[in-house]
Amino acid sequence: MNSPIIQLLVLAGIAVFLILRLRGVLGTREGYEKPAVTRPDPARRAKPEFDVIEGGPDLDITDHVAEDSPAAKAFAEMKRIDPSFSVGEFLGGARGAYEMILMAFEKGELDEIVPFISEDVYEAFATVVDERQRNGLTIEANFIGISDINIVTAEFDDQTKDADITVRFKSEMTSIVRDNAGDVIEGSDTEIKRQKDVWTFSRKMDSDDPNWRLVATGE
């Protein structure tokens, strides 16, 4: 066998060897292959057509009062001074305070609610309780529940940091008024009494005291 043929066979063998090595490393490709997916360059991402608006309406406020109302602006100021303040939590507290204060008044047990009412409210309540006692009257009351509660107004004084929130309550209860002899002179333990009250609570928002105090009552 002459030299050119030998060289040709050697080259062919080398070519076959290289092809087999490449097949082992890369594998075989048959039919359609999905194109490679690469992460886009963040610098080349298209800029959005509009800017995302951060924040938005405070639902804790707008769930209870109109967004552009004076009350909403007052609540926003209260939150600015005391970020822990929540309108929803306030209403939950007002609900509990209403039952506690109302029942203490009905029973004549005002000492229990002194931390939660102003001096003016205490004096007004005490006058009624004293009058009952002079007349020998006692009241047996049973609180059924609050059927409706909503915010009427909210005000904030930026100078004094005083906040006032007025709330309307609709409640149901039964009550019996007895005389000295224990006879019922008014009410019934089966007749439900529906009551409406408009109460104003006040607090200094930069105070360490978290309690809201009842400062005014009405209907």
What keyword list fits this structure?
alpha+beta, 5 helices, 4 strands, Nuclear Transport Factor 2, Chain: A, 219 residues
Mind explaining what this structure looks like?
The protein is an alpha+beta fold. It has a domain of 147 residues: Nuclear Transport Factor 2, Chain: A (Roll). Helices cover 35% and strands 29% of the residues. The chain is built from 5 helices and 4 strands. Strands 1-2-3-4 form a 4-stranded antiparallel β-sheet. β1 and β2 form a beta hairpin. The longest helix has 24 residues. The termini are far apart. About 19% of the residues have low confidence.
SSE diagram, text form:
Layout: H1 3-26, H2 59-62, H3 70-81, H4 87-107, H5 119-134, E1 138-156, E2 162-178, E3 184-204, E4 213-218
Describe the structure concisely for a colleague.
Helix content is 35%, strand content 29%. It contains five helices and four strands, in the order H-H-H-H-H-E-E-E-E. It starts with a helix and ends with a strand.
